[in-house]
Amino acid sequence: LFGLDVSDIETALERLPEREALVMRLRAGYTQEPMTLEQIGAVLGVTRERIRQIESKAIARLAVALPRPSL
Question: Is the dihedral of CA 29, 34, 36, 38 positive or negative?
Fold first, then answer.
């Protein structure tokens, strides 16, 4: 994915807070079919807007944590 090794992605996900990592895994379909914001919100008992906020924060953290692929 984007020139990154699966182990790089897994390492970065492990550095995220538990809830953020779960949201990212569920959104991407890491272990099953990808889920919508609404579906994840139902699982976690929060609104889809809150899931969007958690996802946004996780993406920002991952951008810092993931190594830059060489071009």
Answer: negative
DSSP conformation letters of 3-17: T--HHHHHHHHHHS-
- Of 35, 17, 19, 24, residue with least CA distance to 1: 24
Q: What is the 8-class DSSP label of residue 30?
A: S
Backbone dihedral region for residue 69 (phi beyond 0: left; psi -120 to 50: alpha; all else: beta)? beta
Spatial CB neighbours of 57, under 8 Å, sequence gap ≥ 6: 20
Give residue-wise pLDDT tens across range 17-48. 999 999 999 998 888 899 999 999 999 999 99
